[in-house]
Amino acid sequence: MTEQNPLQKFPMEPEDIDRLVAEFYKRIRAHPMLGPIFARAIAPEDGPQWRAHEAKIAAFWRNAIGMDASYDGNPMQIHRANRDIHPGMFSTWLDLFHTTAADVLSPEKAAAISALADRIGQSLRYGVTMRDQERGAPPVLR
User: Using 50, 70 and 90 to split pLDDT, how confident is the model at 3?
Assistant: First the structure.
């Protein structure tokens, strides 16, 4: 067990995050809707590109909970730029994340990271929803 950063939001070990991310992306690759989207964005087959993506996402989660600051990226920009991603997909993504967290983490850790994932997912969903809006312009009502 590593010493927890005093700024860390909740108890979690780096190994917990690595295990969660690896299992989550294994399930993503097998998912009938999400799998093809990720295959186009990352790589069509499991391999080195997926390991690199998983390492980057594990760094994202360690950063998000305040464990360390090794992540360097802009998830909002990436999700907004990918036209394969639609707002309704975030519910499916979150359901799969919650199930995976519950399967590989203790109940307390799964609940904590799932709550954080919900907040992040809401933000990304909003960003994808608003990607075609002009800054400062009123929303287009349809």
Answer: low
